[in-house]
Amino acid sequence: MKNIILTLFILFFLFSCSKDDGPIKGCTDPLAANYNSAAEESDGSCEYSLIGDWELTKYTLDSTNVLASYKYLYFDVYANSTYDFWGEANDGTMIQSLGTYVIGSSKTTITMTPNNGSGAETYTITQLNGKTISMSGNTSIGTVNISAFKL
């Protein structure tokens, strides 16, 4: 009888202490900066880095397709808060703009300041994931919309 009571007590203790917290939640995207390999369910917390090399897929200025005038345009973003915007025009002319950038506290804006002194421009980041970025801004020359994919 003692063994039965002891066994029941142990079983009761074991089952009352087990706790089902459900799936582990976190960032499940391996392309995110805060990827959690133990996460079983996404909680929407994924954060993505701008750092890297981007190839522009869209560049419009006041609805004019600027990208059509170029063979290619790239935007390289470095961890030391500098950038390099460069490419080749259809006529073979190479372009380059070097500068610095600051990410806004809400991580939804980027302010870029070219080294040539032409003035800072702020863009709203409308999409950022591990593969693509889209941003828009009202600049001194008009409304700019840019999309790119990460190389």
Description:
- The protein has one helix at residues 2-17; strands at 25-26, 41-42, 52-61, 64-65, 70-77, 82-89, 94-103, 109-114, 121-128, 132-139, 142-150.
- The protein has an eight-stranded antiparallel β-barrel with strand order 3-5-6-7-8-9-10-11. Strands 1-2 form a two-stranded parallel sheet.
- It starts with a helix and ends with a strand.
- Helix content is 11%, strand content 48%.
- With 151 residues, the chain is mainly beta.
- It is elongated and about 90 Å long.
- Strand 8 (109-114) and strand 9 (121-128) form a beta hairpin.
- The chain has one helix and eleven strands; from the N terminus they run H-E-E-E-E-E-E-E-E-E-E-E.
- The chain has two domains: 2-42, no CATH class; 52-150, Beta Barrel (Lipocalin), CATH 2.40.128.20.
- The model has no long low-confidence stretch (mean pLDDT 89).
